[in-house]
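Q: How do we represent a protein-ligand complex in a form that can be generated token by token?
A: Start from the inputs.
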Amino acid sequence: MAGSETHYTLPLPVFDRPVRLLVVVAPYYKDIADNLVAGARAVAAQCGADVEVVEVPGALEVPTAIAMAERLAKYDGYVALGCVIRGETTHYDTVCNDSSRAISLLGLQGACIGNGILTVENRAQAEVRADPAGQNKGGGAAAAALHLIALSRNWAGQTKGIGFRA
Ligand SMILES: Nc1c(NC[C@H](O)[C@H](O)[C@H](O)CO)[nH]c(=O)[nH]c1=O
Ligand SMILES: CC(=O)[C@@H](O)COP(=O)(O)O
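Then emit the structure tokens for the protein with LTPLIIQW bound:
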């Protein structure tokens, strides 16, 4: 790890055929969301991926929209973006946990999803995490989706098949 990095980052995958990414963003905090999308777009561009962006009202709607898109069989992967900032009530926990859980369940069903929904205590924490020149969590979520797409493509056709003997 070099300089001010806080964690190791895998090199981006290389693709030999087109990649279609859908970014599903909740612009509940619009400036934060805009930065997350900018970071995701920049990383997608580095891999030559095509990007479509759709907006939903809040983080809770993000996995629902991804599930709807997955049924279209049109995208190779998804980037979930948004920001949840703790308020006065327990609603914060519901929005954080349910959006995250639903995204994870979609992933276990085979969707290639990077989760870039920020779950923070205050706006300052969100700003540094969304900033493409800061922690760039939007870019990180795009990279995660791209890595899963690459893994899934590399493994396609490598099943044991009927009658396989080790
Ligand atoms: N409080 C935040 C929300 N809340 C809204 C929910 O996500 C949802 O849209 C509503 O309950 C209707 O189903 N959403 C965020 O993205 N961020 C928040 O901080
Ligand atoms: C994260 C939330 O759900 C939040 O913004 C709602 O705020 P509150 O708990 O004050 O209603």
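The two ends are 39 Å apart (CA to CA). The chain has a mean pLDDT of 94.
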